[in-house]
Structure formats: structure tokens, C-alpha cells
């Protein structure tokens, strides 16, 4: 009886292994078929069979597309559960967009501390971003928070110069607030002052930060665009809860 049970267990693992191998082979086949539909130079990162409707997820960077097992059709848009409203595509993109907060080069960011500073976020902002200036007003209403601001120069030719002038100021945070909140420009920086501008730009490109402001929370989730106070507080609390759960 014992030998029979052991034999069944071995057989079960063997069958599971065969199913996994067959699925992997199927995914490889779909990848090969679908690759020909994209222009040369476009790299497909992964092709994964999904648990819904026999679709295969095609991931290119943080972009998600779908196709069928014969790669005859390519679907764009979001997959939403009609029964409970779960947005599977958004959940997947959110997961792909996560970063390790502990690995952010915080020494390359401005650091603002209010109150006990226990709550922490990072934000990518461009000095020429109007929405960033509005969002800065929102940030200034919060208490007990630490905000790391990466000056991410993507909007205008002079964004880099403005960021350099602010970084090289005697009081960087004051210079940033003077510009973002009051429109008062920082004095011109000395030519020999070094800035993290290039490092921050490379970081943003690597993380696929395509707009400002973009907020990064301590659980690795992010929020592109300007948030109101209520939503920002909610996301900060959710990130803290996720950190405790993990």
C-alpha cells in the first residue's frame, strides 16, 4: 500500500512536470509567432498564458497586450472581470511598475522633513511642470512626512539649468519651494558645481517615469499624475499597511 501511494505521488509530479513543459513550449511557440507582427527592434520580454479565456499575455517593457494561441489576433486594452469588476490588466501593470524603495538613490534627491517625518514618499518633479507646482502645495499641507524630490528634467531645455541652480543653492529645499510655490528663481550656480541631474534622468528612464509629478510609495507602488490630499493620504496609509503585511 505504501509503495502504491509513493508511486502515485511520483506519477503526479511527473504529470505536473509534463504539463508545465508543454505550457512553456506553447508560450515559446506563441512568442515566435507574435514576434513577426512587430517591427524590427521591438523586444518581447515575456509571453505568458493567462487563466482567462485562453489568452496569452505579451509583455513589452511595462506595456501589456494579449493574443490567442495561434497569434492570429492582437488585443489591446484592459481585461476586466465582468462579475466582480477586477481589472486584471491594471493589477498586472501596477505589479510590473513596482520598484524597491530601499534601492532608490535618495542622496540624489532633495529631502524635506515635516513633523516626525515617519511617513515617507519619493516624487519625480520637473521645475517647469505646472501640475508639480500645484502638487507641491498639496505636499505642504501634510504633516509628519518625509518627501524625497528627484528633479527630473524632461519638459523644457532649461529644466536642467533650473535644477542645477536649485541643487547648488545654500538651502536647496528653500530654493525649490521659492521656485515651485513663489516663482522666485534660484541664483545661477557656479560652473564647477556638480549635480545628480544625469543620474536622476537615467533613473527615471530606467523606471519608465514618463510624466511628472510621479509619486513612489514605500511599498514600491507608484502613482503617475497629481493626487489630491485625500487620495495621497490613502495611498501612503495603504503602502504602510502593505509593508507591515510583508
TrEMBL record:
PROSITE patterns for the chain: THIOREDOXIN_1 (PS00194)
Domain of life (superkingdom): Bacteria
InterPro entries in UniProt: DiS-bond_Isoase_DsbC/G (IPR033954), DiS-bond_isomerase_DsbC/G_N (IPR018950), DiS-bond_isomerase_DsbC/G_N_sf (IPR009094), Thiol:disulfide_interchange (IPR051470), Thioredoxin-like_fold (IPR012336), Thioredoxin-like_sf (IPR036249), Thioredoxin_CS (IPR017937)
Residue ranges constituting the Disulphide bond isomerase DsbC/G N-terminal domain according to the UniProt record: 22-89
Localization annotation: Periplasm
Signal peptide: 1-21
Keyword Calcium tagged: no
Keywords: Disulfide bond, Periplasm, Redox-active center, Signal
Domain Thioredoxin-like fold stretches: 113-233
Keyword Disulfide bond: yes
Family named by the database record: Belongs to the thioredoxin family. DsbC subfamily.
Purpose of the protein: Required for disulfide bond formation in some periplasmic proteins. Acts by transferring its disulfide bond to other proteins and is reduced in the process.
Protein name: Thiol:disulfide interchange protein
Biological source species: Undibacterium umbellatum
Amino acid at each position: 500500500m505504501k509503495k502504491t501511494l509513493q508511486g502515485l505521488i511520483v506519477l503526479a509530479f511527473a504529470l505536473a512536470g509534463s504539463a508545465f513543459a508543454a505550457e512553456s513550449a506553447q508560450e515559446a511557440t506563441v512568442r515566435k509567432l507574435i514576434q513577426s507582427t512587430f517591427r524590427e527592434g521591438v523586444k518581447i520580454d515575456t509571453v505568458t498564458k493567462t487563466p482567462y479565456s485562453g489568452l496569452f499575455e505579451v509583455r513589452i517593457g511595462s506595456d501589456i497586450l494579449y493574443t490567442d494561441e495561434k497569434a492570429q489576433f492582437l488585443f489591446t486594452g484592459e481585461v476586466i472581470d465582468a462579475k466582480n469588476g477586477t481589472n486584471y490588466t491594471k493589477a498586472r501593470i501596477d505589479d510590473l511598475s513596482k520598484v524597491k524603495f530601499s534601492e532608490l538613490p535618495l542622496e540624489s534627491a532633495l529631502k524635506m522633513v515635516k513633523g516626525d517625518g515617519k511617513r515617507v514618499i519619493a516624487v519625480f518633479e520637473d521645475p517647469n511642470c505646472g501640475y508639480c507646482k500645484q502638487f507641491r502645495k498639496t505636499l505642504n499641507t501634510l504633516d509628519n512626512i518625509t518627501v524625497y524630490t528627484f528633479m527630473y528634467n524632461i519638459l523644457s531645455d532649461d529644466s536642467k539649468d533650473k535644477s542645477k541652480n536649485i541643487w547648488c543653492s545654500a538651502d536647496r529645499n528653500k530654493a525649490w519651494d521659492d521656485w515651485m510655490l513663489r516663482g522666485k528663481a534660484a541664483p545661477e550656480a557656479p560652473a564647477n558645481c556638480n549635480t545628480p541631474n544625469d543620474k536622476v534622468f537615467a533613473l527615471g528612464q530606467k523606471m519608465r517615469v514618463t510624466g511628472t509629478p510621479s509619486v513612489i510609495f514605500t511599498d514600491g507602488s507608484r502613482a503617475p499624475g497629481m493626487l489630491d490630499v485625500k487620495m495621497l493620504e490613502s495611498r501612503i496609509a495603504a503602502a504602510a499597511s502593505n509593508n507591515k503585511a510583508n
